[in-house]
Design goal:
This protein is mostly beta strands. About 10% of the residues lie in helices and about 45% in strands. The protein has a nine-stranded antiparallel β-sheet, with no helix packed on it. Keywords: Signal. It comes from Lysobacter capsici AZ78. This is Secreted protein.
Length: about 170
């Protein structure tokens, strides 16, 4: 019995790292959001490791090649550039982490709607300066720790979802 339990624990320890999505996070960072798209690109929201992140960076691109990073690695006040919004009601939970860059509005999202058939969607929506919306959805495994950011990010009071606890 003990030997079987030991083997099970060892197998679990080896498999657990595989349960996380690939990401663009660097050494000393943790992934608060990470997934792969249908186009095989990675969406990553990385924060400085620690009890609460002191910095956040959005990175997008194919594995090993970041095509878009926001803010730049040298930005001092990166947390202030992101907002957190959520909406909850019975069997529904939406979270957005938003930021603006070059006239475009980005929102990393988690959408859970269990009203008809339970579905959880993850991805990033991008609104162009002319108002056109594009949604890039995640496929496969998704790392999602967005609610952990609520205490350290400001709430966008203009967002339709509202603010946590309101």
């Amino acid at each position: 019995m003990t030997r079987t339990r030991t083997w099970c624990l060892l197998a679990l320890a080896l498999i657990m790292p595989l349960a996380h999505a690939a990401d663009h996070c660097r050494a000393g960072e943790v992934a608060y959001f990470a997934c792969q798209t249908r186009a095989k690109k990675l969406i990553s929201l990385c924060g400085a490791a620690g009890k609460a992140p002191s910095a956040l960076h959005y990175r997008f691109g194919p594995p090993g090649k970041v095509e878009l990073e926001y803010p730049s690695a040298s930005a001092a006040d990166s947390l202030a550039r992101f907002s957190y919004n959520e909406y909850t009601r019975a069997m529904t939970y939406y979270v957005d982490i938003g930021f603006a860059n070059g006239g475009y509005r980005y929102a990393l999202f988690k959408r859970y709607d269990g009203t008809e058939s339970p579905v959880t969607d993850y991805g990033v929506s991008v609104t162009a300066p002319d108002g056109r919306d594009t949604t890039i959805e995640c496929v496969g495994k998704t790392t999602q720790r967005l609610p952990e950011l609520a205490p350290v990010l400001h709430c966008d009071k203009e967002h339709a979802f509202g603010c946590p606890g309101s």
